[in-house]
Amino acid sequence: MKASAPSRLARLGVFGFDAVEPVILAALVTEDPLLLIGPSGTGKTYLLNTLSETLGLEHRHYNASLISFDDLIGFPYPDPDGSGVRFLETPATVWGAESVLIDEISRCKPEHQNRLFSLVHERRVQGIALPCLRWRWAAMNPCSSDQSSVQDYAGSEPLDPALADRFALFVTAADWADLSEDERRGVADPSGEGRIASDGGALRKEVDGWRAIFEQSLQALPPLVVAYAVAVTTALNAGGIRISPRRARLIARSLLAATIVTGKTRERLFRSVLTCSLPHACWGEQPAAEAIAAAHRAAWDSAANASDAWVHAFLTETRLDRKLALLLDNAKTADAGSQAIAQCLAAESKERAGAFAFAVYPAAALGRLPIGAEGINDLAKVAAPILSVDGEVTWSERFNETNTSHPEVARIAKVLAGLQGTRAERAQQFFSWCMVSRLQPAKPAELERDIEACIEVLRARRLA
Question: Are residues 231 and 345 in the same domain?
Answer without folding.
Answer: no
